Amino acid sequence: MSAAPEDDYITSYGREMSTEVAPGVLAWVETNPDGALEVMYVEALDEGSGAVGAWLDGLPTDRRVVVPNVSSERLAGMLARRGFKARKGLRPLAMLGMTWVDVWVRSKA
């Protein structure tokens, strides 16, 4: 099964905007005006290594964390196990305009 063109674009752009935020983890993270962390893109350099899970575990608990446009079942499972809740959110996607996507949110502790 091949990825949809918009998935290829999102992956390419996400990688371009990302930096190595932890050993083996590329991520693009923004801070919203309300102080929440928004994880725009996250990828393990070695899939299955546990690096992304360890990075998620280290995110600050005193801030809301938002992960929009989750299309990976593996990432969705990692987020659910860490207390993130899924909901639908309207987000701008470059190729599609404003689109309803899965958004995972963890409230601050």
Verbal overview:
It contains three helices and six strands, in the order H-E-E-E-H-E-H-E-E. It is α+β, with helices and mostly antiparallel strands and 109 residues long. It has one domain (5-106): Aminopeptidase, CATH 3.40.630. The protein has a six-stranded mixed beta sheet, with helices on both faces. A hairpin with a 5-residue loop joins strand 2 and strand 3 (37-44). The radius of gyration is 13 Å and the shape is globular. The model has no long low-confidence stretch (mean pLDDT 84).
Distance N to C terminus: 40 Å
Shape: globular
Tally of helical runs: 3
> Could you tell me the strand content as a percent range?
35-45%
Instruction: Please identify the structural class as seen in this structure.
Output: alpha+beta
Q: Please state how the strands of the largest beta sheet are arranged side by side.
A: 1-2-3-4-6-5
| CATH structural architecture | 3-Layer(aba) Sandwich
Gyration radius from CA atoms, angstroms = 13 Å
Order of helices and strands: HEEEHEHEE
Q: What would the CATH topology be?
A: Aminopeptidase
Kindly state the percentage of residues in helix. 25-40%
What is the overall pLDDT average?
84
Largest sheet: 6 strands, mixed
Number of domains: 1
Q: Show unreliable segments.
A: none
CATH class: Alpha Beta
Find the count of extended strands (DSSP E, 2+ residues): 6
